[in-house]
# Entry
Amino acid sequence: MILVAILLGTLTAGIGSVFVAALLSFGVLARYTQHMLSMAAGALMGTAFLHLLPEAFESDVGPHRLFLTLLLGVVFFFLLDKAELWHHGHEHHHGPHAHDDAHDHQHDHGHEHGQHSAPQRNNTQKNSISHHEHHGGHAPGSWAVLAGDSVHCFGDGILMASAFMADVRLGVIAALAVLAHEVPHHMGDLVVLGRGAMSRQAAVLKVTLAGAVTMLGGLVGYWLVEQLRDFLPYFLVMASSSFMYVALADLIPQLQKRLSLRQTLAQIGWLFAGMGMVTLMSLVTHTH
# Structure
């Protein structure tokens, strides 16, 4: 039963997020990108602080060890982020648009290739993605994007399996949070892949295949956590550190811009809507 739940959760988060990203990038929902960004940040923080961490701290593991794990997790994702930025900046250092590529990839690959660029799809904003799209031609690094995307989705699958192994209700919340934060991530991927001659349909298909790797991560996570059940609290804290890093280092900074009072209130409203969404999901799944 747990394995079935893991497969369904990883399938929903891994592939469902791609279709939502496609709607926000190319479809009728493009105008709501900024709202989705705020809601994703709220969902991630709500999941980390209100669900995953409390579940981990209810174990017999000492708080000092769990807080140390949380700190190391945040530092780990920061270093991973830096490593990717360096790799992709170096990869295109000798290209005809070396400076532009290095700058743009800091956005296209901000957190696992896309968190910084995704919300910028709004046509009213002048940003690095629109600038980069104007170069046209071949999309450098597209395979690197897909490879990195697959690795990231694989890790998401393992983290969701950890949550499901602790509590099915917690797993559902984690899957919802992963779906929320994967949306801007996949939007960035679609932008990178769409820079060349690749059609939108082909770009969506390739990102969908990468998203499907989430299920493989779920299967591996099911076996791994089953073998290392005593370390489950640490897995939950690592999942929390991932969500916290994405929200606070990638998403929240993009919301820190000068806006009108009405736009600011809407931004805050969607932020709390994300938190409320995971809380409501928790209550519903707990009831059933």
The radius of gyration is 18 Å. Residues 45 and 218 are 22 Å apart (CA to CA). The chain has one domain: 2-287. The first helix runs from residue 2 to 26.
